[in-house]
């Protein structure tokens, strides 16, 4: 069993198409297909469901092999990275998942990491749920993530706290004038319940925390719009028809008015997460240090750091 066979098989599972998988590995389709067939012969069972050579999904055995393949190829990549670092420079592509409220945190952490390791590049997946990021970390499809944290931490992950995100209500000045006669200094949950509101989707942890907070305060807020990204919520608010509840500071400079949400005040913890592995790869150590520096900067002077946006 060769590492290249596992790498080609992992690419096929990711791309779900022989041609695209081959292109991503810079080989011909026939080369990749033959490597996968040799892997199947070695393990003694079909791994891929085919129809006239087209990809039709993995067999149950293929799903089992995929988990091992991802771990093995991740270890190979980390070994190559650490050997390069031992020669004087850490060079890699860091795959990062970011929750909707975490774009500013991600920018700060990655900027700190890049200053120390200029050979590192980044592949960012934004607007992803914490649960999806955690799943992709465990399956080695991401290297790090900006997630919302829950009490007790997350099993199998190394988590470095960054700070908290407070939510505010955004809308156009005209919309606030229409509803309040002016742009208010704050908005309560009771006032919010009477407005046409856009919120993050119910499947997101940030929305779950918002719902819990308003329910605990005895308020019911029924949104007109559910969206899976902060960008979509800001676009809704920009029409003047809706008021969006978003992380404070996200989308700075977009011309919208921001009003703090109080009674209840909704806050979420935010952290950098990675797999808790031994030995710790060099890139993971670099991520930890950048996250710790960011968290320390916020703790020492929170007003100096824009946590989001």
From TrEMBL:
One of its GO terms (cellular component) is cytosol. InterPro entries: HTH-type_LysR_regulators (IPR050950), LysR_HTH_N (IPR000847), LysR_subst-bd (IPR005119), WH-like_DNA-bd_sf (IPR036388), WH_DNA-bd_sf (IPR036390). One of its GO terms (molecular function) is DNA binding. Coiled coil: none annotated. Residues 1-58 form the HTH lysR-type domain. It holds the Pfam family LysR_substrate. Keywords: DNA-binding, Transcription, Transcription regulation. Belongs to the LysR transcriptional regulatory family. This is HTH-type transcriptional regulator CynR. The gene is cynR.
